[in-house]
Design a protein that fits this description.
Mean pLDDT: 83
Distance between the termini: 59 Å
Radius of gyration: 23 Å
Number of strands: 24
Low-confidence stretches: 1-18, 333-350
Number of domains: 1
Order of helices and strands: HEEEEEEEEEEEEEEEEEEEEEEEEH
């Protein structure tokens, strides 16, 4: 997927320069790739794509500059729009920030990823390209992002307003975040708030080198966001050089910083990228001190599934934050072999 992003980079930049605009008309079908369904005759290399009518289906590689759902170029507002990605890679990239607006202006719309890859990034300022569920921060603006299978790779995923409506819903697939998940609000404020990972797998990844699997992301910051990880969820941590051997969080291993409470369940997958020794540890998740208390009975890690060679525990790093530390322990077979080696050494010394 990341290789496809590199291939499309030049196309995305050309789109930004061209500044062309186009409306979806759905004149002949729901096929995104059919130019007869677009006011400018083609779905690729445009600066703005207002998906306002019909139900466009993406099933082949395509690159655009911006997608605004529910609003035409002439300012007409059309609600109940749906865009579905079934296959291929839909890349949205230009020198802008809010690159995908699921609800652009007081509309209720759905963006479905049901296979294929949705890739969103700023071509000029790495880290600022975002999918925003609601462009207009009001209760009349509702954007639903649904991940069923395939993947979403975005620098930022933003509700738009912590008091607004719209949700991220997942039953499968992979969500790759390169900078921030923001403004989903606190459950204590409203039980419908908070970022719910659902059945997706969350991965962190680098910003400037799009092949880099290690990332440093924030959940909240621009607006507090509780993180809800249920039993169907998975979070992947890629671990390189460990902290006690001079590694740097977010550079040598994945790092999450949360500005909100947390509910943890499901599975933590760990990929060790460097050779690890007993006692190596990585501080992978820091909970802001303001929200450091976990929900009662949750966040104690008892429900998490971990690899047999990793132990996990919350520690106090001295700044009042809760920090999740992963520690490497040798497999039992490795320990047994190590013991036999010590026995042989002792016998030789005799």
């Amino acid at each position: 997927m990341r290789k496809c992003v590199s291939v499309f980079l030049l196309v995305g930049l050309m789109a930004s320069v061209a500044g062309a605009t186009s409306d979806w008309t759905g004149a002949v079908s729901n096929d995104w790739a059919d130019g007869n369904n677009w006011s400018d005759g083609g779905p690729d290399a445009v600066e703005r794509r207002d998906v306002a009518l019909g139900t466009p289906i993406v099933s082949a590689d395509s690159t655009v500059g911006v997608i605004h759902m529910g609003r035409t170029n002439t300012g007409q507002t059309i609600a109940n729009s749906t865009l579905t990605l079934n296959a291929g890679t839909l890349t949205v990239t230009s020198a802008g920030n809010e690159l995908v607006s699921v609800s652009y202006d007081n509309t209720t719309n759905n963006l479905n990823v049901n296979g294929g890859n949705l890739v969103v990034y700023n071509s000029a300022a790495a880290g600022t390209g975002e999918i925003r569920l609601q462009h207009n921060a009001s209760t009349a603006s509702v954007g639903y992002l649904n991940l069923y299978s395939g993947s979403i790779d975005t620098e930022q995923l933003n509700l738009g307003s912590r008091d607004g409506l719209g949700t991220f819903t997942a039953t499968g697939g992979t969500l790759t975040i390169r900078r921030r998940i923001d403004k989903f609000g606190l459950v204590a404020t409203n039980t419908a708030y908070g970022f719910n990972l659902g059945g997706a797998t969350l991965e962190m990844a680098g910003l400037t080198n799009r092949d880099d699997v290690i990332g440093n992301i924030a959940i909240g910051a621009g607006g507090d966001s509780d993180f809800i990880m249920d039993s169907t969820s998975t979070v992947v941590f890629d671990l390189g050089l460990s902290s006690n051997n001079g590694g740097v969080a977010g550079v040598d291993w994945d790092l999450i910083t949360s500005h909100g409470n947390y509910t943890l369940d499901g599975e933590l997958l760990v990929n060790i990228l460097e050779e690890a020794a007993a006692g190596d540890y990585w501080d992978v998740w820091v909970i802001d001190a303001v929200h450091a208390a976990a929900y009662t009975g949750l966040g104690d890690l008892d429900a998490l599934t971990l690899p047999s060679y990793i132990t996990a525990g919350w520690i106090d790093t001295g700044n009042g934050n809760d920090t999740l530390r992963l520690t490497y322990i040798p497999e039992p077979a490795t320990i047994a072999l190590f013991g036999l080696g010590l026995l042989a050494i002792r016998r030789n010394k005799k």
